C-alpha cells in the first residue's frame, strides 16, 4: 500500500516496433525498466464499424456535415418526385378542364336541339288537335243531320 502513489521509473529508450509481441518482449531483468518490461500495445487507425459491429442505439459515426448532405440529398429526391407528380396533376387538370368545356358545349347544343324539338312537337300537337276538332265537329254535324232525318 505504501507504493500505491509511486510512479515507475521513466523509460530510458523507446520500445522497438514489435515490442508487444511475446517473442520480442524482453524478459524482465534488474537492468530493464518497468516500461520496457511491459510495453504499451500499438494502435492502428480506427475503422468505421459495420452495422453488425456497432452497438445498438449508437448513431452512425458520420460527421454532422455528411448527415446534413445526406438529408439534403434525400430532400432533393423528394422534391424531384413532387415536381413530377405536380406536372402529372397539372396535365390531368388541363385535360379535365377541356373535357368539362366540351361537355358544357354538348349540353348547350342538346338543350337547343331539345327546345327546337319541343316547338316542333307543340306545332304538331296543335295540328293534330285542330284536325280532331274539325273531325269531331264534322261527326257531330253528321250525327245531327242523321237524327233530323230519321228521328
TrEMBL record:
List every stretch annotated Disordered.
Answer: 1-60
- Tell me yes or no: is Coiled coil among this UniProt entry's keywords: yes
Domain of life assignment: Eukaryota
Q: Which GO terms describe its biological process?
A: cell differentiation; flower development
Q: Where is the composition biased (Low complexity)?
A: 22-51
Q: Which residues form a coiled coil?
A: none
Q: Where is the signal peptide?
A: none
Q: Which UniProt keywords apply?
A: Coiled coil, Developmental protein, Differentiation, Flowering
Q: What protein family is recorded?
A: Belongs to the FLX family.
Looking up PANTHER family in the UniProt record yields: PROTEIN FLX-LIKE 1 (PTHR33405:SF7), PROTEIN FLX-LIKE 2 (PTHR33405)
Q: Per its record, how is this protein called by name?
A: Protein FLX-like 1
Q: Which organism is it from?
A: Iris pallida
Amino acid at each position: 500500500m505504501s507504493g500505491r502513489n509511486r510512479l515507475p521509473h521513466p523509460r530510458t529508450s523507446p520500445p522497438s516496433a514489435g515490442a508487444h509481441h511475446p517473442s520480442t518482449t524482453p524478459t524482465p531483468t534488474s537492468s530493464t525498466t518497468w516500461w520496457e518490461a511491459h510495453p504499451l500495445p500499438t494502435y492502428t487507425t480506427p475503422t468505421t464499424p459495420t452495422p453488425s459491429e456497432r452497438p445498438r442505439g449508437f448513431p452512425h459515426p458520420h460527421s454532422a456535415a455528411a448527415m446534413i448532405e445526406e438529408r439534403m440529398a434525400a430532400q432533393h429526391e423528394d422534391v424531384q418526385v413532387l415536381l413530377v407528380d405536380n406536372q402529372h396533376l397539372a396535365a390531368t387538370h388541363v385535360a379535365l378542364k377541356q373535357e368539362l368545356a366540351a361537355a358544357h358545349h354538348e349540353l348547350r347544343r342538346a338543350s337547343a336541339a331539345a327546345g327546337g324539338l319541343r316547338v316542333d312537337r307543340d306545332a304538331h300537337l296543335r295540328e293534330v288537335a285542330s284536325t280532331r276538332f274539325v273531325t269531331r265537329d264534322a261527326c257531330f254535324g253528321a250525327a245531327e243531320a242523321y237524327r233530323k232525318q230519321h228521328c
